[in-house]
Amino acid sequence: MTSATSLFLIAAGAILAFAVSYEIAGINIKTIGAILIVVGGIGLAFAMATLAGYAPWGANRNAAAQPPASVIVANNAAPPANVPPAGATPPTNV
Is 26 left (phi over 0), alpha (psi -120 to 50) or beta? Predict the structure, then answer.
């Protein structure tokens, strides 16, 4: 359930619970509104937890620690020309 759907359920439930005074025999509109508010709240909490990445079933956390494939350089490849070799001292400002 997305956050938009959850907010819609909360709004519809609030309208039924607090603004509707119509009565139907055998059905309590206020109870249906309260149920929609609770279901929307649970759905919103689930959507926010998933969005924030706190859920264990969310994005793969190991993928963020590895560089993209375009950045990986083979061990025997030479460094780019503008990078000084390791251990070189930087020039001094004279």
Answer: left
Q: How many CB atoms lie within 10 A of CB 4?
A: 10
Residue 24 is assigned to a structural domain of this protein: yes
With respect to residue 18, please indicate whether it lies within any of the assigned structural domains. Answer: yes
pLDDT per residue of the chain (94 residues) written in tens, 0 to 9: 788 999 999 999 999 999 988 888 888 999 999 999 999 999 999 888 887 665 565 555 555 555 555 555 556 666 566 666 666 676 677 6
Q: Structurally, how many domains does the chain consist of?
A: 1
Task: Record the pTM.
Answer: 0.55
Name the H helices within the chain. Answer: 3-14, 29-52, 61-65
Is residue 85 in some structural domain?
Answer: no
**Which domain covers residue 53, as residue numbers?**
3-58
Q: Other C-beta atoms within 10 Å of 9: how many? A: 21
- Retrieve residue 83's tokens: 């990078």
